[in-house]
Every structure is written in C-alpha cells, then in structure tokens.
Predict the structure.
Amino acid sequence: MIVAGVMSGTSLDGIDVAIVDLHRERGRLRIEPLAFRSDPYPKPVREALLAVSNTMTHTASIARLHFLLGELYADAVQRASRKYKPELIGLHGQTIFHEGAPIEYLNHRVASTLQIGEAAVVAERTGVRTISNFRERDIAAGGQGAPLVPYVDYLLFSDAREGRVALNIGGIANITVIPPRAIPEDVIAFDTGPGNMVIDALIRHLTDGKRVYDRNGAVARSGVVHERLLQSMLQDPYLHEKPPKSTGRERFGQQFVAGLIATGISLPDLIATATEFTAASIAHGLRLAADFSRTQVIASGGGVHNRWLMKRLAIHLDAMPLATSAEFGIDPDAKEAIAFAVLAFESAAGRPTNLPSATGARRSAILGKSSPGQPPCRKTSIS
C-alpha cells in the first residue's frame, strides 16, 4: 500500500510529507521510501502558531488555525504525491500543547496533548482516508502520548548483533534505545530535552525574526559557552527524571528562553551555551539508558544539519559511534513523516503501535482516528 505520512514538528519549520510503499513480507513490515517533500510554513502562519503554542488563550485563533492547517496539509500532500498516489494518509498535526504527565486539574488527575490540523479537511480535499490524533489513545491508556516514533525506529534499526539508539533532533530531542536482539518490549524511549527549540528562539530574537535557525551553527561557533549558566541549565529537574517522560514548549519554550535573555549575557554567547546544553542533555539522556561501549547512535531530524551541534554532540558521546539515518537509507528530514505513514498503515490494519515501555501506557493500543476518504471536494477560498 502507498501511504503518505505528514509531519510538522515542534520546530515549526513547515510541513514534511513522505510517500512510502508499505507491505508485509513473511510477517515483517517492509518500508520502502518513495518520495519526500518539505514545504515551509508561510511566515504569518508560523507566527500565528507560535502565538498559540504553550498558552491558555486564543481560542478563536486555535479554531481557525485548526482548519487552515487542514487545507495546508492537503495542499502539501497533493504536491508531494504527483508521481505516487497515496491510498492512505497518516497525519500527525501540529502540536501546540503537550503535558503528557498527569497534573492536578479541577480535582482530577489529567494528562493532555493537543495537535491541530483538521483531518476531515485533508480527507475531503484529497479523497484519501486520513488517520490522525495518534497521541490521545495512548494517554487514555495511561501513557504520556509520546514518544510514538519508537515503534518505527524498532522496525527500521533493530539489529541482532549491535545495540542502536535512534536519535531525533527536532524542536525537542528524543531517543529510542534498541538493545541487540531486542523485542519491542525491550525498547526504551523518551525525550531528552530541547533539540533545536531554544537555539531557534534565540536566533529569532537576535535577528528580529529574519532568521529562524543557526545555519551550520555559525553563531554558536562565534560565541563563548557561559559555563555557570550551562551548569545551571543542566540541573533542570526534567533531565534527571526517570523515563517514561516527555516534554515540549511548556518547559523549554517562551518562558525558558525569556529567562536566558534576562541574564544579560550576549546573544551569541547564549546561543553557544544553548547549543552546548542541547548536546550535553542528549548525552546525559543516553547515559541514563544505553551502554556507551556497545551502542551506535543514528541521528535524524533538522538538528543533523547544524554542523557545530553535531560536532559538540560527538565530543560529548566520546567513544559512542555517531551516524545519520542517511547511512541506513532513510532521509534524516523524512524519518518522522515516514513514521506516521507507518503508524497509519498499522492503525488501518487494527494493529497496536504504541510501546508501553516507551510511553508508560498500561497496555498496547491501536492509535489514531479515521476520517474516511471520498471523491475530492474543491476547497473554499481561505484568502
């Protein structure tokens, strides 16, 4: 079956669409990437998403963006699938709030997550069945709703002889630890802390929004790491919590960055320190969960393009081999979109895809909600 996976991550870079051929062969799922396309968000859309992320207000804006993103996702799928026509779409949506660990709220213990981007609009515009809202069922089963990609990391990278860690450096960084000869229940996965999120926010502040990321880590390389601040950042309680755990903008978003800026340290030095913090916190997470002497790290996500970050990470990893998923035939930019194509395929077949060892759920669950495909309907104007 040809499936489109649609992913827009916490970095808010844009919309990634992966077209994948999925089929079972002798009981094992085979994954063949066919095409990939990434469309950046228009600047007004990105700014609107930033405005409603990690906030308790803007109800009207959230509702409008929910449907607008459906239109943008449908357009992105149609542009990516001119050669290969999908029979199914897996849609992650745009996370604007994630609080996977339960908190006290109105005399109840509540965990929550919210991804916007209306799947019904995608199904209506494309005529293709669309499965979305993957995180909610895991939360309902007692999990944190994240990370969900470990199921696919296991399919892609498990090995009989070698331990491997799939590292994704998006807005948030997360790892999937796969021991040699692992079965799914052996997999450990969690968010290590910020990936590009803090660095990107500081770059936007430095350039008044003209740039949204540190190309090749040039600004970080020009700055000086503020050691006292770095050590303070590394004491963040989240880093020392035991998994299962997940995080997002609610911890490392606007308030976190505002606190860094308030120190009065120069922005290039803050960016150098934030880059070092990302590398060090990833390495710290790996030390919690993996045997450094027997494990290869396979990196993907936008962070692999930051050469300075990858160099600092390699130093923190010491003897642990560091590669990118490209060396295993998977485009680092496409991996998470591929993952949601796989999750949709498995959901459509009625197979559970959360890993309770990663999310903390009480049981395995079939994830996602389905919006049936119908003959496409022309969209109304949204200009």
